[in-house]
Amino acid sequence: MPLLRLPVNKNWEFKQQTTLNNHTAKDFLPVAQFPTVAHIDLLQHGLIKDPYIDTNELDSLWVNDADFTYKTTLPSINNNPETTKIYLIFDGLDTIVTVFLNGEKILESTNMHISHRIDITSHIKSSSSTDHVLELKFKNAPEYAKSQMKRIGYRGDPKKISFGGPERLFVRKAQYHWGWDWGPALNTSGPWKDIWLETFEENKGRIEEFVVRQQVAEDLKSAVLYVSGTIDGGAENVVIQLTNPDQSKLLEKTVAVQNGVFKSDVKIENPELWFPFTYGGQPLYTVRAVIPDQHEEVRKIGFRRLRLLQHPLKAQEGTSFLFEINNIRTFLGGSCWIPADYLLPRITRKTYYDWVLLAKSGNQASK
């Protein structure tokens, strides 16, 4: 059985666990979408007004201090031999959350910016039920942040914290959720990125980590590709494939797995070089690590020689700061990115594409 990944994105429900605002959403309600956060779901059910309009932000501030629970039932798993490994993968949880599977705690997280991969094999195989309930219990971030500030201590000047209070510095969460000069205070919580159920045969293994690096020679006539990774399970070899920008095959080699690790260096003559926008083209090579008939990981990479140049300044303190790419000193131009929407799960891939394209059309993508 090859590696299988199923999205856990159906039949989600949510409810408020606190009594704020007369216990709004005190019973489980269907979510508006998935991934999601509480503000999106409360808006869908008419339980708050659009915080972007008029002074509605003030009327919905209570949401920032509320706790919410999300739950669903996992997709059914077929063809489940004894050698099958089963994982739950959380791409992102916002932010203070305890995760339960069939009532048993499997994860605690206090960081919005990281993913989690949890082995649930024993939980599934020891359960007599075919319905496996996944429950995410989110505590509000402001309360947690204040408790951490009290525990650790804050030595700075609170008056110098422009938005929110100094407690926001004590939690790994988007800081603008406490408010910013360009947006409201919407301290979101919920499963803001995708969740997956993954199964694979342990004796065949899966690629757990896959890292691709490159180094271009000073004369730009050759490059070395550095490939490495780790294996979860019993795979003995990994096939490394490299494809040209025009999709033609450049090379393929088999690399042995030793103690769960594989690595290989590949020299490439006369690579097509990647340049920043306005300096040249952006050809991308495709690198694959493959366990045949089981699993593959894919990376895109552009070959370029990059150096940070810092030289003493004439008659001034400090040093220069500029990047040299493919032996050309480049001008850096750009702007600060702010979120296209405070409610991050509403941002589509097309929205990101369109906004980045706007930056490029303004010649702001030269780094």
What is the succession of H and E elements? Answer: EEHEHHEEEEEHEHEEEEEEEEEEEH
- Proportion in β-strands: 25-35%
> CATH H level of the largest domain: which superfamily?
Galactose-binding domain-like
Structure classification: mainly beta
Question: Which CATH C-level class of the largest domain is it?
Answer: Mainly Beta
Shape: globular
State the end-to-end CA separation: 43 Å
- Biggest sheet layout: 6 strands, antiparallel
Radius of gyration: 25 Å
Low-confidence stretches: none
Number of contiguous helices: 6
Name the strands of the widest sheet in spatial order. Answer: 3-2-4-9-6-7
Number of domains: 3
Any guess at the CATH architecture of the largest domain?
Answer: Sandwich
Please bin the fraction of helical residues.
Answer: 10-25%
Query: How many strand elements?
Result: 20
Summed over residues and divided by their number, the pLDDT gives a mean of: 93
Q: Which fold name fills CATH's third level, the topology of the largest domain?
A: Jelly Rolls
